[in-house]
Amino acid sequence: MQYDAIILAGGESSSELKKIAPYDNEALIIIGNYPMIYYVYRALRQSSFIRNIVISGPTEALRNIFAREERLFFINGGGNAIESFANGMAVLQEQGITEQVLIMPSDIPFITTEAIDDFICQAQKNEADFYYPVTSKEVNEAKFPGVARTYVDIQDGIFTGGNLFLLRSALFEQVLDIALKLVERRKNPLAMARLFGLGLVWKYIIRRLNIEAVEKRFQAVLGIKGKAIISPYAEVGVDVDKPSDLELAQRYLAGVKF
User: Fold this and answer.
1) Domain that residue 125 falls in
2) CATH no. for residue 125?
3) pTM for this model (two decimals)
4) Could you read off the pLDDT of 29-43 as tens digits, one per residue?
5) Coil, strand or helix: which one is 87?
6) Which end of the chain is more exposed for a tag (fewer CB within 10 A), N or C?
7) pLDDT tens string 92-125
8) Is-contact 200 217, C-beta < 8 A?
């Protein structure tokens, strides 16, 4: 089974990042030998699961980065990540979209083809409309010691959210509003829980929350079956949104050549 993919590359660089990397768009920040977006694209393109790729962002600047590539499309980003996602979906629909679409941001240069393939393979073993990866604190600390992440301590373990999403394409209009709220709250566990009701908040406070409860509540509220995928790859969760992240990426990816 193959999947189309959208890379969201419209994000503006934070003021802190601009102090050490003077780029308006974070996808264009040079890490090692390449712009950040290029690491994400190469990991995607090397996956046998991936067919068409759309990059939603500043099209003129992005086209200058890539040589002529087959099955690669560009579209201007929107005012936020959800608008950029919708713009990318419109391009894929013109091409004859796959049943499910993989969505990811441009600020995860650590991502690897192995991590992407593992996420997809695990998703294929489950029947759901929406898939989202999480990684354990143990996995993250083993790969990237000391990197600050927002963790949630639940019955299943201590986890942080990932930066990949797999969505049944027929449902994308239905999930646009909730997707924006999820993106806005992704680094605040209590705000995320409140989105699905005080019951989840209370379970979280008294340490009785687990992944299964969140999945059931997700379906009850949205009418969409969601599935959390526990990834053994820390690379799905570590993004670059502050100077310390960029410094880590510069050290980690300095010798990479494609």
Assistant:
1) 3-251
2) 3.90.550.10
3) 0.90
4) 999 999 999 999 999
5) helix
6) N
7) 999 999 999 999 999 999 999 999 999 999 999 9
8) yes
256, part of any domain: no
Structure tokens at 238: 């570590």
| Residue whose pair of structure tokens reads 């995320």 in the numeric block | 192
Is 99 part of a structural domain of the chain?
Answer: yes
Q: Tokens at residue 159, please?
A: 């986890």
Q: Which CA distances in Å does 205 have to 34, 190, 194, 208, 221?
A: 43, 9, 12, 8, 21
* Separation of alpha carbons 45 and 66, rounded Å: 12
Specify the number of domains making up the chain.
1
Q: Which residues face 6 on adjacent strands? A: 54, 103
207 domain-assigned: yes
235 assigned to some structural domain? yes
134: tokens are: 């999480």
pLDDT in tens, 145-200: 988 888 888 899 999 989 999 999 998 887 776 666 666 666 666 666 666 665 66
